[in-house]
Amino acid sequence: MGKWGANLGLLIVALTWGTVIPTVNYLLPVWDPFFLGSVRYVAGAPLLIMLVWLLEGFREASPRISWWRPFLLGTIGLGFFAPLYTVGVAHANPIVAAVLSAAGPVIAGVVAWLSFREPMDRRVVPAIILAVSGCILATVDFSQLRSAHSVFVIRGGELLILAAAACWSWYSIAAQRWLTGWSQLRISASTTIGGAPMLMAVYFMAGQVGWAQVPPAPPPDGWHLALLCWLTFVSIVLCLILWNYGVRHLGVVVATVYLNLVPIVSLAILAIMGVKPSLVQILGATLVIFGILYSEFLQYRYRRRRRRAVPV
C-alpha cells in the first residue's frame, strides 16, 4: 500500500474522528466523560488481541522489545490522552474543541522537537498555516467581534484538550521509534493493553470522588449503544491501526495535518442536523483541504527531485 495507502488511511481516520466530538456530546447526558474516555480503549483491547491472534498468531514478537515500552506508551499516549481529551470536550464549547484540533500539527512539531530533536520540515509549514487558518474560519462566529461577547467561549476544558494533543503526539512518534519492526496491528494492540490499567484506575478514582458514575448507567436504547460501539470499535480499533500506519509512512506532522478535517466533518454533521454552514465556513473547509493537498504536492515534488538527483 505504501504512501497512497497511508494517505487513504489517514483520510478515513480524519473523517471518523470528526464524528467523535458530536457523538461524545450527545452521549454525555447518559454517561460521564471518565467512563466514555476509558471504555473506548478498554473495550477495544480484546478485539485487538483477537486480531493479532488471527492474523499473526501469539508467537513471540520480532524483534524482542522490553515490556515497559508498550506499557509506557499506552499509559501516556492512551491512559492520559483519553480522559484528558474526553473530560476536556465535556468542559469546553464543542466549536472551540474543534478549533483546538487544528493545533495538532503545531503541537506535534513542538513535541517532536522537544522530545526527539526532530527538525520541523519547512515544506509542511505552509500547509499548517493554511489548515489552521481554515479551521478558524470554519468554526469561529465572526459576528461576535462587534458585540460584547467573546468569539471563543472558554469553559476550562481547553487546556486539557491541548495537553491530550501533546500526549497523543508523543505517543505517535515514540511508538514508531520504540517498537520498530512490529506490525501496526501489534503496536496498536500492545499499547492499548498497556494503557488499560491507567484508564481503569482514572475511572475508578473519579468514581471515588464523585466525578464518575460507577458502575455506569445502562444504555437507554439501542441507538445509544450503537453510538458507543462506534466510538469503541471504529474510531478506536480501526482508526488506531490506520493512524499508526500513516505515521510510520508519512511522519507525525503530516499525519496530524489530516486532523484539520475533523472540525470540518463536525460542521458537516451539524449541517445534516439542520445547521447550514455559512460562506465563511465553506471557505474554511476549502483552505483545510487545499492545505493538505499543497503539503502533499510539495513533498511529492521534493521526493521526485531527490530521485532524479540519484545517479543511475
UniProtKB/TrEMBL annotation:
Question: InterPro entries, per this entry?
Answer: AA-Vitamin_Transporters, EamA_dom, EmrE-like
**Pfam families assigned:** EamA (PF00892)
Q: Which residues cross the membrane?
A: 7-28, 34-55, 67-89, 95-116, 123-140, 152-173, 185-205, 225-243, 250-273, 279-298
What start-end ranges are recorded for coiled-coil regions in this protein?
Answer: none
Membrane-topology annotation of the record: Multi-pass membrane protein
User: Any idea where the EamA domain is?
Assistant: 7-139, 157-293
Taking the first listed entry, what is the main subcellular location of this protein, grouped into a coarse class? membrane
Keyword DNA-binding: yes or no? no
Keywords (alphabetical) are: Cell membrane, Membrane, Transmembrane, Transmembrane helix
Query: Would the keyword Cell membrane be found if you checked this record's keyword annotation?
Result: yes
Location(s) in or outside the cell? Cell membrane
The name of this protein is DMT family transporter
